Fold this protein.
Amino acid sequence: MTNLIAFLNGPSGKPSMMRVSVLLVILFVLAPRVVIAVKTGQYPPLTAEEAGLVFAVLGVKAYQRGKEAQANGKENGQ
């Protein structure tokens, strides 16, 4: 459990919201699908809401990286 908490901490030592949100998506969207697939032998299709949740997390991460790249460019005098 300590390793999981350490994994969720970002470079600042505080929990990273992106890491927490990705963990929640894995636990509540993807893990149950794996269990269903193993038990039934068929992969259940994603609902529109589940697909939207996965893509929303990916979109927020892309936005965050873009903002960080802009901030790093300004700090380096570019």
In short: The mean pLDDT is 82. Residues 2-75 form one domain. Residues 22 and 57 are 7 Å apart (CA to CA).
